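Before we proceed, please read the two lines closing this message. Report back on whether the structure tokens fit the sequence:
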Amino acid sequence: MATGDLSNNATKVRRQLQAIQYPHDVNDAAKQLARGTPVSHLRELLRVLHYALLDYSRHVAQRVQAADLDLYGRTDAKFVDGVFRFAREQLGYFPSLTSAQFLSATQFRERKLIIVAEMLEQIAKIHVEGLRQQRIKQSVWVPSDKAPAGRLSRPVQSPIEMVDHRAKVPAPPTWQSVNLGQTKPSRVVRHVASPPAYHVSPLVPAPQTEPEPEAPIFDWETPIDGAVYKNVDKAVLKPPPPTPFWVEAHVQREQQQPRTYEEDDTVDELYPRELPIQPSVEHPIQPTRAPTPPEPAMHATLAKLEATLCSKLDDILALVADKFAQLDDRLARLEAKVDKPGASLSPNQEPETPKVFNAPRTTTASSSVYRWPPEPAAFRKVV
């Protein structure tokens, strides 16, 4: 099988997996073999070979056992060596890759697909041949003179002959009841559609009768079966007690005669009630506030505050100006010390000797010389 078409070879492997009834998803298996990750590719490759040689067919497993190959509990390299040996000796197929190349995770993927497809095809042929040999062994040979006659072929009848045959067929026999011993005709059930029913409405409408009033569903006298209910307080349904005569007389008298103020006072004493207390409209209650000072006093207070604020601001400006003056003096002193010759030298540093041109060289190098221990002036704070 030629290389150069990875998708076509993956499709062939998928078809062979379907032929051997691979228990897992054949589409995913072909995809992992063709373009899966290195780990999934090797795992699917070894799983396909294990199923094809050991789990697919009893006839193939017998051939593996007859070849004295122990493929269980082996490492990947030993397992692939045993598979290739079985292919060479039992299938007559010689793989084009070695065991190490076959176990490569990233290389020779298309050749692996070709090898797997061809090996699965040979394994399927072994399975079919084993089934045929098994059927031959299980078959029983019978002499021709003792062979049973085959089923006689029924002649083909035309539609007219079939109708005549049905007409000549006798009626079905009657059946006899076992219990009564009486002969009864056979029961035939015919499903015939019922004829349509026609209703003619009269010309004069019929008088409509009034519906009878329904009896009340619940009554106090109706016994209730089932669960035990609490006793209902029937006093609620009784009419209220009659109004006392003195109340009715009082109401009638009020309706007939106008009331006076003296009677109102008497009634208030007999029937006390809440006092109608309402807020006074003439003098409304104002919320509590601080007393507002008169305008002249307010102007005087504002003028005093303004004067105090101005004096505070003047003091602050004076302090700021003083600070700036001190800073200017300090900067002037520092500039004077920086510009002064010899100010850059440390008090502990000796002056360098002047250089003489074209003089014989007596020293190897010239550098600043410091005295030790240093003078106390070296630790003096520069102000």
Q: What stands out?
A: Residues 295-339 form the longest helix (45 residues). The chain has a mean pLDDT of 73. DSSP finds eleven helices and two strands in the chain.
